[in-house]
Amino acid sequence: MAKLKTKYKCRSCGYISASYLGRCPNCGAWNQFEKETEAVQNRSTKGSPSRLIKKTGISEPVKLGNVKAEKEERIKTSMAELNRVLGGGIVPGSLVLIGGDPGIGKSTLMLQIMSELADQYKVLYVSGEESANQIKLRADRLGLPANDMMLYPETDMEDIRQQIADLEPDFVVIDSIQTMNEPSLDSMTGSASQVREVTSELMKIAKMDAITVFVIGHVTKEGAIAGPKILEHMVDTVLYFEGDEHHAYRILHSVKNRFGAANEIGMFEMVNKGLQEVTNPSAVFLDERLPKSTGSAIVVSLEGTRPILAEIQALVTPTAFGYAKRTTSGIDYNRAGLLLAVLEKRGNLMLQNQDVYLTATGGIRLNEPAVDLAVVMAIASSYKNQEILPTDCFVGEVGLTGEVRRVNQIDARIKEAAKTGFKRIFIPKHNMRASLKNAGIEVVPVASIPQALKVVLG
Questions:
Q1: Can you say how many angstroms the Cα of residue 96 is from the centroid of all Cα atoms in its chain?
Q2: Residues comprising the binding site?
Q3: Which amino acids are annotated as binding site for ATP, given as ranges?
């Protein structure tokens, strides 16, 4: 009988301890240690070739120049937004992880895509959460055709491996990774060790057999994918499905992509027949803008390689208590606090006795520093109760000394603003070039916050 070895592993950072600890000494998280038991195997000193060596025939180092690089032919879907996020299409033999809140539309998106691909490829949909009957009812509700897509309600990885070997599919969907169970491990389903081992096995299947595997994952209350952090390092692509439950729009956001640009976004709308792609997100975010309103500024944000125009709204009101309240939605809270301090110090606005509410409309999250100038102008507009011209938009990072700093890809931002119909765009002075004067829109360079406030609000 094999000897068993017991260890305790932190679910947050992967730190290993010989005994249980209440607080992780590495990351500081509380109550995150999980018991893991594994059999100690006596390994032979004589090395055996790995599955990768058997597959490729390469058992020794080779020079980079001698390696023949074969360009991967991507598989295009009918959803251009999904193709964009994946870097131009699905790469055969890749392992893609999709995370998101419950009910956001992960399974719906996968069912729609796989139903389409099943007309040309062999697809296996493995579900650990729904029966075949439930999946069929959802497919009928979405109006999907009855095709040859294979449904397999199972959680045992041993049986799943056998079915994949027998069917030899081109695409496999695992819904979800937290419900899969590796019977060789003596740990609870959904535990860190189970998730890690199942993902490792799926990665081998994807790479050795050139099968594209889509894995659906749950998220924690903090918004991260449940399971060990190593899960995101093992896969080729990590996609997050984001959205507000009170809005119909969903954003598919790539945070890691070995085959394309990270931080790309694709936008979808949830309707009765499933998810429909939104090809012009800027129009969606600006459609409901109220004319002659104060505290509203338009920013040209860049998500991956896509420029998007979004509206930032600010409401500044006198505080009724001794401590001013700050609330943000879609904008980083700490960044907003920093910009308020800069605006008070460099812009001479008395904000310490004012409640400030900030939001990015439409449920989008704006995290890049280039939105700083628009945030500052929206706050100043609400504070002074002066309207910003509806044909103005802003781009620029704000420093602690009040300077407006350079941003990247200014040409793409200006082009998007001109295409959407804006007449004037404020950009950092150091981004200004002579060629931008013929961009089809008035480009106004600003060097500091006081200068921007004087030009826009007088």
A1: 12
A2: 100-107
A3: 100-107
